[in-house]
């Protein structure tokens, strides 16, 4: 269950008081990750308390990327105070209208996704060389994530571990696909650029309407990854016409891209990401008891199957047909 109450221990009490904040916490968000968020009041305005006690390296990355984004003019939350040792952070409050909530309140899906695409174009224009020395999205990381499917999902539906030969071929095929990917520009990849992590700030103008959250896993990698995150949404169905329109808008900004290479990369990273997410959702259900994530798995399979239909991914499509055929891609619990 999501943590909706937090006992105020002496360290947190001291942190809040030192920074002029009330010790009354109002739960905002937290579930799939170890981080939880609360709204607290200060003398001037409300702020967000992020508690992230067990991910010190990711906290360091969060602070670094937030400062980089702010310096480049993006609406990442301002960081007002930090207690790195205890994992307490006071952040700017960007409101309650995540893209997901804005959609529920009737804000145009097209307008929201168009703002999200505009944000990516701005990010990709700003970050064209890795002067900030952001870690690279190398094959080890790529495969570590893709392997979550055979570590968590496959054993559950097969009722046994994936055979060693199948594991080896799975890794070998991903390596071949990774090595054969088109040489498109690389950029800052936020990696969770999706409707629950993007904010609609209606009182602002232009790109400042877009609030950006949850970027502690950022890497330096392909321009297509965050497009996949946004448009292959695993928690809701996106209108296919809007998906196509958004890809056209993006490509219009880069008329010198080879379109075939672009879609090759888009579907490759889509397949990798969706394989990862199927594994993560099963892990959340089995290890952490968060069984509602099982409900999302059939949608993620549909997205993955669509990715695998790209001709460049035929070898991986064949692996899935041989080792995890269609009847094993249903709601597994």
TrEMBL record:
Q: Which organism is it from?
A: Candidatus Bealeia paramacronuclearis
One Pfam family linked to the record: APH
Q: Which InterPro entries match?
A: Aminoglycoside_PTrfase (IPR002575), Kinase-like_dom_sf (IPR011009)
Organism lineage reads as: Bacteria, Pseudomonadati, Pseudomonadota, Alphaproteobacteria, Holosporales
Question: Domain named Aminoglycoside phosphotransferase: which ranges?
Answer: 26-255
What's the protein here called? Phosphotransferase enzyme family protein
Membrane-spanning segments: none
């Amino acid at each position: 269950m999501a943590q909706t109450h937090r006992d105020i221990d002496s360290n947190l009490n001291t942190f809040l008081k030192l920074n002029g904040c009330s010790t009354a916490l109002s739960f905002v968000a937290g579930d799939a990750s170890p981080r939880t968020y609360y709204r607290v009041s200060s003398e001037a305005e409300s702020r967000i308390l992020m508690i992230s006690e067990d991910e010190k390296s990711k906290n360091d990355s969060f602070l670094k990327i937030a400062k980089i984004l702010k310096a480049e003019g993006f609406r990442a939350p301002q960081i007002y105070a930090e207690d790195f040792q205890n994992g307490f952070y006071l952040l700017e409050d960007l409101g309650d209208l995540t893209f997901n909530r804005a959609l529920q309140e009737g804000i145009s899906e097209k307008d929201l996704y168009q703002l999200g695409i505009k944000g990516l174009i701005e990010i990709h224009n700003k970050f064209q060389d890795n002067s900030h020395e952001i870690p690279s999205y190398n094959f080890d990381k790529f495969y570590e994530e893709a392997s979550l499917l055979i570590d968590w999902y496959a054993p559950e539906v097969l009722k046994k571990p994936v055979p060693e030969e199948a594991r080896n071929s799975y890794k070998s095929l991903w390596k071949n696909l990774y090595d054969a990917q088109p040489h498109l520009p690389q950029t800052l990849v936020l990696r969770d650029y999706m409707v629950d992590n993007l904010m609609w700030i209606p009182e602002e103008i232009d790109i400042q309407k877009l609030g950006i959250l949850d970027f502690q896993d950022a890497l330096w990698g392909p321009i297509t990854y965050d497009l996949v995150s946004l448009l292959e949404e695993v928690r809701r169905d996106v209108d296919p016409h809007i998906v196509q329109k958004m890809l056209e808008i993006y490509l219009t900004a880069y008329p010198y891209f080879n379109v075939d290479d672009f879609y090759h990369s888009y579907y490759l990273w889509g397949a990798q990401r969706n394989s990862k997410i199927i594994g993560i959702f099963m892990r959340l259900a089995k290890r952490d008891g968060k069984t509602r994530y099982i409900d999302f798995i059939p949608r993620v399979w549909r997205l993955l199957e669509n990715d695998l239909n790209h001709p460049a991914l035929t070898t991986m499509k064949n692996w899935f047909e041989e080792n995890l055929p269609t009847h094993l891609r249903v709601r597994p619990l």
